[in-house]
Design goal:
The protein is α/β, with parallel strands linked by helices. It is built from nine helices and ten strands. The chain has a four-stranded parallel β-sheet. A four-stranded parallel β-sheet has the order 9-8-7-10, covered by helices on one side. Strands 1-2 form a two-stranded parallel ribbon. Strand 1, helix 2 and strand 2 form a beta-alpha-beta unit. The longest helix has 17 residues. It is globular, with a radius of gyration of 20 Å.
């Protein structure tokens, strides 16, 4: 989102940009990255209200008026609008890997995806797998789907991290669909002359992952890290493990 908004604002400085958030985890950080001239709107909606709104097909934000186009990028119910809706759907793994999600997450993701499948003028997906799943499960015609690979964000130019010695890096949320348990158990089977360093925030159903981490010699978890620390870890690592 940071790269998309920054690029659009740079290419079209005369246009007005409105950014809508279901919630802000760190408002200070987000507001510091909002391009000049863009407006940030956020409303904290209680979970029970949001769930009820999703079941009824209502948006949790006020109606978006006066927009030429609305681009929606998250599994949160899009706001009511008369403008053409373009939506990015990253995947429908809540359908193909349901055990990796909680029941409430599956219900919410399905409600949002059904709404987008009906209402979006165009849908952007990052892979042909996501396109094929949308077509098969939600009956979206191929003519409304564009496959656009995700871009990259240049990392800060920092020295490599050496504090762990030789290490393999894992960078992702601690959650079932990242296959962290398998990575930890594989690491336990090795007599590796290196360490396994995990970085990223806690996710859902992570209790078993944290317990397995305690039982894994040579493995450490740093939690969420900033862009400079992450860049240093990438540059210092022997390899990236992403199962």
């Amino acid at each position: 989102m940071r790269e998309l908004v920054s690029a659009l604002a740079a290419q079209h400085p005369e246009d007005a940009w409105k950014l809508y958030a279901d919630r802000l985890r760190d408002a200070g950080t987000v507001e510091g990255e909002v391009p000049q001239g863009a407006a940030l709107h956020a409303r904290r909606v209680p979970g029970v209200v949001q769930a009820a709104a999703a079941r009824l097909g209502w948006g949790v934000e006020a109606r978006v008026g006066g927009a030429d186009v609305v681009h929606w990028t998250d599994y949160v119910m899009p706001p009511p609008t008369r403008a053409p809706l373009v939506a990015t759907i990253h995947d429908v793994l809540f359908e193909t890997l349901p055990d990796c999600y909680t029941p409430s997450m599956r219900r919410g993701c399905r409600a949002v995806t059904r709404r987008i499948a009906r209402a979006a003028a165009r849908i952007i997906v990052p892979s042909t797998r996501a396109r094929d799943d949308l077509m098969a499960i939600y009956d979206v015609p191929a003519s409304r789907i564009d496959v656009v690979e995700h871009g990259i964000r240049r990392m800060p130019d920092v020295p490599p991290a050496h504090g762990h010695g030789r290490f393999v890096l894992f960078a992702a949320t601690l959650e079932p669909r990242k296959n962290v348990l398998r990575l930890l158990r594989a690491w336990q089977s090795l007599a590796a002359d290196a360490r396994l360093v995990l970085v990223g925030p806690r996710g859902w159903r992570d209790e078993g992952i944290l317990a397995e981490l305690e039982r894994t010699p040579g493995a450490t978890w740093e939690g969420p890290v900033g862009p400079r620390r992450l860049a240093a870890l990438y540059r210092g690592a022997l390899a990236l493990a992403y199962p």
